[in-house]
Specification:
Layout lengths: L2 H11 L2 H23 L2 H18 L9 H19 L37 H12 L3 H12 L4 H8 L3 H21 L15 H10 L4
Helix pairs in contact: 1-2, 2-3, 2-4, 3-4, 4-7, 5-8, 6-8, 7-8
Length: about 220
């Protein structure tokens, strides 16, 4: 069913079934975003839960200026930042990574989008190598690659999610592709690692629905 219809139904009548339909349509995308940003299933599940609990509470304020997916990913992005700040080995302040110069020339960046694991048929090893490379580059650069090259958001939608200008998206993406390309060349697979989880576990789906406010 069309997102706009479901959102209107939820906003006008509080129809929980409409929201759960939206949840079912987008929970795997939000989970994979969290997984790629955080690198760990447990953190990705926490991000997913925080995102949809917030979405349930604040969907009444959604105006439809952006796509519903980009609105969700903006919430998820904030949840990822909060999670990083809570880690003992991470800085408590968010550094503006536009001020950080890449360690290698940006001219090495690919001219076309060619690193998306969703755009190609990749082996489990290749998917895992991309995830390891993603986690090795700074979060703000990681995020712009995920949003543009993996999730396929437009420059405008990406700028809205990341709260930066469209020009900054283009500059950051150019640098990020260079970083990711270099990281891919150096990524080493740890022993005993398999494919990335493609979808949520049934247990997490059930737990998420229990976390939503009551009828």
């Amino acid at each position: 069913m069309d997102d706009a219809i479901l959102i209107r139904r939820f906003k006008e009548t509080g129809d929980r079934a409409a929201f759960e339909t939206l949840l079912a349509q987008y929970e795997d995308k939000v989970f994979r975003f969290g997984l790629r940003m955080c690198g760990q299933r447990e953190d990705a599940e926490d991000v997913l839960q925080d995102t949809f609990v917030s979405a349930f509470r604040y969907l009444k304020d959604f105006r439809g200026d952006a796509s519903f997916l980009s609105w969700l990913l903006k919430i998820a992005s904030s949840a990822c930042i909060k999670k990083r700040r809570l880690r003992k080995n991470e800085p408590r302040t968010h550094v503006p990574l536009d001020e950080v110069e890449p360690a290698y020339p940006v001219t090495t960046a690919p001219d076309a989008v060619s690193l998306s694991p969703d755009a190609m048929v990749l082996s489990a090893e290749e998917q895992l190598r991309i995830q390891i490379a993603l986690c090795s580059i700074p979060p703000a650069y990681r995020e712009v690659v995920i949003l543009r090259d993996i999730e396929g958001l437009s420059v405008k939608e990406t700028s809205e999610v990341m709260a930066i200008s469209q020009g900054a998206v283009k500059v950051r993406l150019h640098r990020a592709r260079a970083m990711l390309l270099a990281a891919l060349e150096q990524a080493e697979l740890p022993d005993g690692k398999g494919a990335l989880p493609a979808t949520l576990s049934p247990e997490c789906r059930q737990r998420l629905r229990k976390l939503l406010p009551g009828d």
